[in-house]
UniProtKB/TrEMBL annotation:
Gene3D superfamilies: 3.30.300.10, 3.40.50.880, HUPs
Top EC class for this record: ligase
EC nos: 6.3.5.2
Organism: Phytohabitans aurantiacus
Protein's name in the database: GMP synthase [glutamine-hydrolyzing]
Chain positions recorded as ATP binding sites: S225, G226, G227, V228, D229, S230, A231
Subunit structure, interactors included: Homodimer.
Recorded metabolic or biological pathway in which this protein acts: Purine metabolism; GMP biosynthesis; GMP from XMP (L-Gln route): step 1/1
Known catalytic reactions: XMP + L-glutamine + ATP + H2O = GMP + L-glutamate + AMP + diphosphate + 2 H(+)
Domain annotation GMPS ATP-PPase: ranges: 198-391
InterPro entries tied to this protein: Class_I_gatase-like (IPR029062), GATASE (IPR017926), GMP_synth_C (IPR001674), GMP_synth_GATase (IPR004739), GMP_synthase (IPR022955), GMPS_ATP_PPase_dom (IPR025777), NAD/GMP_synthase (IPR022310), Rossmann-like_a/b/a_fold (IPR014729)
Length: 517
C-alpha cells in the first residue's frame, strides 16, 4: 500500500501512544505506533520522517524500565521525546535525570522562553500543561537549549534545532495542556521539516489505488452491519471497483428504530452500491426464544449470522468470481492485536472466518491504517448520510443484549420505542456528540408498582445509560442536563406502554460495563 513516510510513535507501554499518533494525524502527518521493543534497525527500515518517544512508566531508573538505544540518535532522523521519552532521550544523549523526590501530577504552570525556542515560539510566557512524573531532567544534554521549566522541574523542555531534536516533560497530546497541538505541529513542521500531506483527498486516492491493485478484475463481497466502519469500508471499495462489489445486509431484527431503513434506503441512495438484503428477523427471534444468558444470546446470534451470510455469499458467488471480502478493521484493532501485518482481527459475532473452506475469501481492509475520527471524516468525504457517519457505537448482537431477560418481538418493540425517544431528545438538545454511547436498557424480568392515570400499574423499568469515553475501555456516566433526562423520562412513561419507571445509571466503567446485558 502506498502510505507516506511515517512518523513513528514509540510506545513505552502507557496509554498515551495512540493519542499522540492521533494528534500527529490531526496535523495532517501520517503516523504509526511501534513497540519500544522493536530494534532500531527495524524502525529505520520504515524510513521514518521522525520518531516520537512517548510517555511510559514513572521512572527511567525503575527495574526493567525500557531504555532508548542510542543508535536511534545516530541516524539523523528527527526525534521528539515526551515525558518518559524526554527523560530517556536526556539520559541517552548525556544529560542528567534525577530522583528529586518531587512529584508533579496534573495541571502545572510552565514558564517558557518563547523567544529562545522554535517549539514554543509565539506562545505566552506562562502556559498551563499536564504533568505526570516523578523523576526529572536536571541538566539538558550537550548542544540542547533549555526553553521551559516549572517550579519543580528545572528542565521541562529542550531543543537542538540544528540536530532536529526536541523534548518536553509534560504531555502536549492531552487536552489539558494549553497549546499542546501547536507544540506538536511546530516539531513536525519546523523542526522535523515534514509537509502536511495526510489529507482526506490523499487518503482516498491512495486507498482507491491500493484496492484496485489488490482486487484487479475480481468480485468483492461485504457484510454491512449498519455501523460506521463497514459502511465506510464498503463505500471506499465501491469507489475503487464499482459494481465488482456486492454488499450483503443481514437484518437480524435487533437494530434500533429506523436503522435497517438507513442502510437499505439512505446508504444505497448515497453510494449507488449493489445491496442484497436478507430479512432474517424471524429466524433470529426463533433461535433466541426463551434464552436469557447474554453469552448464549451472543453465540446464537453469531451462529445464525454465519448461516444466513453463508447462503447469501453462495448466491453472490454463484453469479461471479468472488475472491475478496471487505472488513472494516481499524488501526486501533491492528495495534491492540499487536501486529502491523498479521491476520485480521475478526469480531466474534461477525465471525466470517467460520465460513466453510469452499467459501474462504482474501480480506480487503481499507481502514487498517485509520483511526475512528478519520473513518468518520472519510465517510463524510465519500458522501455518506451524516446520521450514519455519526452513529454511536452499537453492539453487533444489538438490542438482544439490551433486553435483560428473554428476547421477544413485543419486548423489542417496547425497547425500540423507548430508545427512539432517548435518541430524539438527545439530538434535540444538541448533545449527540457529547456522549460516546447511550444504551437504553429494558429490565424485562423486573416489575415494580406505579400509578399512571387513575390506576395502579405493575410495569417494567427502563435504564438510561449515557456514557462518555475515549475508547470504550473505560467510561464515565455522562452528566446530561437534568431537564433533558426529565423530558426523556416523562416521554417514555407517557408514550411507551408497560413502562412505569425510568432510572439513570450513574456507574463508571470500571466497575460497571457500558452494556447491561
Ligand atoms: P462493555 O459493555 O464491555 O462494552 O463496556 C464496550 C464496548 O463494546 C460494545 N459491545 C459489543 N460490541 N459485540 C460488539 O460488537 C458485542 O457483543 C458487544 N458487547 C459490548 C459496547 O457497546 C461498547 O461500545
Amino acid at each position: 500500500m502506498s502510505t507516506p513516510r511515517p512518523v513513528l510513535v514509540v510506545d513505552f507501554g502507557a496509554q498515551y501512544a495512540q493519542l499522540i499518533a492521533r494528534r500527529v494525524r490531526e496535523a495532517k502527518v501520517y503516523s504509526e505506533i511501534v513497540p519500544h521493543s522493536m530494534p532500531v534497525a527495524e524502525m529505520l527500515a520504515k524510513d521514518p520522517a521522525a520518531i516520537i518517544l512517548s510517555g511510559g512508566p514513572a521512572s527511567v531508573y525503575a527495574p526493567g524500565a525500557p531504555q532508548v538505544d542510542a543508535k536511534l540518535f545516530d541516524a539523523g532522523v528527527p526525534v521528539f521525546g515526551i515525558c518518559y521519552g524526554f527523560q530517556a532521550m536526556a539520559r541517552a544523549l548525556g544529560g542528567t535525570v534525577a530522583h528529586t523526590g518531587d512529584r508533579e501530577y496534573g495541571g502545572t504552570v510552565l514558564a517558557t522562553r518563547p523567544d529562545a525556542s522554535v517549539l514554543l515560539r509565539d506562545l505566552p510566557g506562562e502556559v498551563s500543561v499536564w504533568m505526570s512524573h516523578g523523576d526529572c531532567v536536571t541538566e539538558a544534554p550537550p548542544g540542547f537549549a533549555v526553553t521551559a521549566g516549572t517550579t519543580v522541574t528545572p528542565v521541562a523542555a529542550f531543543e537542538d534545532v540544528a540536530g532536529r531534536r526536541a523534548g518536553v516533560q509534560f504531555h502536549p497530546e492531552v487536552a489539558h495542556t494549553a497549546h499542546g497541538q501547536e507544540m506538536l505541529t511546530r516539531f513536525l513542521y519546523d523542526i522535523a521539516g515534514i509537509e502536511p500531506t495526510w489529507t482526506m483527498g490523499n487518503i482516498i486516492d491512495d486507498q482507491v489505488a491500493a484496492i484496485r491493485e489488490q482486487v484487479g478484475e475480481k468480485e468483492v463481497i461485504c457484510a454491512l452491519s449498519g455501523g460506521v466502519d463497514s459502511a465506510v469500508a464498503a463505500a471506499l471499495v465501491h469507489k475503487a471497483v464499482g459494481d465488482q462489489l456486492t454488499c450483503v445486509f443481514v437484518d437480524h431484527g435487533l437494530l434500533r428504530a429506523g436503522e435497517a431503513e438507513q442502510v437499505e434506503q439512505d446508504y444505497v441512495a448515497a453510494t449507488g452500491i449493489k445491496l442484497k438484503v436478507v430479512d432474517a428477523a424471524d429466524r433470529f427471534l426463533g433461535a433466541l426464544a426463551g434464552v436469557t444468558d447474554p453469552e448464549e444470546k451472543r453465540k446464537i446470534i453469531g451462529r445464525e449470522f454465519i448461516r444466513v451470510f453463508e447462503v447469501a455469499a453462495r448466491e453472490v458467488a454463484a453469479a461471479g468470481d468472488v475472491e475478496f471480502l471487505v472488513q472494516g478493521t481499524l488501526y486501533p484493532d491492528v495495534v491492540e492485536s499487536g501486529g502491523g501485518t498479521g491476520t485480521a482481527n475478526i469480531k466474534s459475532h461477525h465471525n466470517v472466518g467460520g465460513l466453510p473452506d469452499d467459501l474462504r475469501f482474501s480480506l480487503v481492509e481499507p481502514l487498517r491504517t485509520l483511526f475512528k475520527d478519520e473513518v468518520r471524516q472519510l465517510g463524510l468525504s465519500l458522501g455518506l448520510p451524516e446520521a450514519m457517519v455519526w452513529r454511536h457505537p452499537f453492539p453487533g448482537p444489538g438490542l438482544a443484549i439490551r433486553i435483560i431477560g428473554a428476547v421477544s418481538s413485543d419486548r423489542l418493540e417496547l425497547l425500540r420505542a423507548a430508545d427512539l425517544i432517548a435518541r430524539e431528545e438527545l439530538t434535540a438538545a444538541g448533545l449527540d456528540r457529547s456522549v460516546w454511547q447511550f444504551p437504553v436498557v429494558l429490565l424485562a424480568d423486573v416489575r415494580s408498582v406505579g400509578v399512571q392515570g387513575d390506576g395502579r400499574t405493575y410495569g417494567h423499568p427502563i435504564v438510561l445509560r449515557p456514557v462518555s469515553s475515549e475508547d470504550a475501555m473505560t467510561a464515565d456516566w455522562s452528566r446530561l442536563p437534568y431537564d433533558v433526562i426529565a423530558r426523556i423520562s416523562t416521554r417514555i412513561t407517557n408514550e411507551v406502554p408497560e413502562v412505569n419507571r425510568v432510572v439513570l445509571d450513574v456507574t463508571s466503567k470500571p466497575p460497571g460495563t457500558i452494556e447491561w446485558e
